[in-house]
Amino acid sequence: MASSTTTIDLAPKQDSEQTGNPSPSTTISPSVPTNPYTTAHAHLLTHGFVILPATLFPSFSLPSLRAAATRLTHSARTGHWPYIRTLPKQFPPWPSDPSHGIWGVQHLLHPSNPDALLFARSYFDSELLRYACAMMGMTSSKNNEKDGREELVMELYNLLVRPDDKFALRWHRDDIAADATKEEEEARLCPPEGKPSAKHTQWNLALYDDASLIVVPGSHRRARTEVERNAHPYEDDMPGQMVVRLKAGEVVFYDNNILHRGVYDSSVERATLHGSVGSVGGGERARNVLQHGVGEWVGGIKYLEGEEEWMRVAEGMRERLVELGRVSGDVGFFSKEE
Ligand SMILES: O=C(O)CCC(=O)C(=O)O
């Protein structure tokens, strides 16, 4: 665990040969006492992402998570797990037929997954949730019991895997369409001072080294430039782009409206846990979350308080997701045909 005076290198690994960009790095000096949660949040606000070292999350057992990921991925590739991301489709909904290949495995916490409890322990991990709270601007510290976890809403927990064939995602923001005008982008991304903090956050936790995610640092706070707007959707050399290189066990939190894409190597093993959580009052998240189908099964599970300490927080989060589904009705899809 990081104490407030430990040196925590929150610097993303810069792919300087590829981009030639200055590194958007933050290194906390050992001599200056800092709060690692607020430092990480500040980095996210400035650059649109922040990489956290594996040492911050000692309760994650990579061997156990890898074994469970391997089991579920095998089920998915062989047609025994219907909740999948299929090639060549980028956005939900996805069919449940894996015959053209998959690039993701959905619904790790689904009750029919024999390893759902193992994945739940990682999704609801108290330290991870402390960082998630911090990313949404809620105060976090080790000694603060009321650190915002009571306001969290369960969202998605999926697994991103090596595709069976050559595959990449186009440049996108998760919740702003590619045909949005400059003014529409600015209305979403350049809020006036004093606007309330983000109502959700998302992360990738790499179980193996992973260099699939590519971002344009800083693009979460501005409209696209003319070059970005006119670029090919699969442009391999976007100005300022940066490969997010994760070592196994590292976690990247990122703003889902940063300009980003995925570029995959079908010959390199990938098992990256892809999670998100919200906070109460984030009704605008309904489509992004519910379009994945989580509402169809989350009402049928329960985390039993008293069995394990984390379950009290988990059960509250689950109930708030059920409520989001109840009040939201039919939310449709972000980009149904793509
Ligand atoms: O593969 C990744 O890490 C990126 C995934 C992504 O961009 C998405 O699911 O929208």
UniProtKB/TrEMBL annotation:
Keyword Glycoprotein among record annotations: no
Bias kind Low complexity: ranges: 19-33
Lineage: Eukaryota, Fungi, Dikarya, Ascomycota, Pezizomycotina
Keywords tagged on the record: Dioxygenase, Oxidoreductase
Region spans: Disordered: 1-33
Coiled-coil annotated spans: none
GO MF terms, alphabetically ordered: dioxygenase activity
Organism of provenance: Sporormia fimetaria CBS 119925
Name by which UniProt lists this protein: Phytanoyl-CoA dioxygenase family protein
